[in-house]
Amino acid sequence: MGPLHLLPAMVLAMCCQAQFALAWTVNNFLMTGPKAFLTYAGSVQVGAQSGIYECKHQFAWERWNCPENTLQLSTHNGLRSATRETAFVHAISAAGVMYTLTKNCSMGDFDNCGCDDSRIGQT
């Protein structure tokens, strides 16, 4: 099963490091009880995996090609240095998560997600 099984925990940890100056934070969105975690966890996992697949696609012919161990290292503080690669892995994973959550919300997969009710099921 490789390091991809750690992906949801890594992305949740990245997303939930909220900036306290904001009124609405990812922390407020994700931490509304165990039911909320279960509701969004599948989408977070799918989104993070789509971000990693895109990373592999973007760097397929480069020396650094978004290797599998990048994910494992980032969850164990091995990738904490501020490098271009770390920034890209975090950004592409976060983009994948937000895209998937937004898409699932607009498709009506979540209750009370704040999407326009007149557009549920339309993409």
From TrEMBL:
Main localization of the protein? secreted
Q: Which GO terms describe its cellular component?
A: extracellular space
Localization, per the record, is: Secreted, Extracellular space, Extracellular matrix
Instruction: Name one process (GO BP) from the record.
Output: neuron differentiation
* Signal peptide (UniProt feature, chain positions): 1-23
GO MF annotation terms: cytokine activity; frizzled binding
| Pfam families in UniProt | wnt
Q: What keywords were assigned to this record?
A: Developmental protein, Disulfide bond, Extracellular matrix, Lipoprotein, Secreted, Signal, Wnt signaling pathway
The family database entries (SMART domains) matched by this protein are listed as:
WNT1 (SM00097)
Entry superkingdom: Eukaryota
Q: What does this protein do?
A: Ligand for members of the frizzled family of seven transmembrane receptors.
Its protein name is Protein Wnt
Origin species, per record, is Etheostoma spectabile
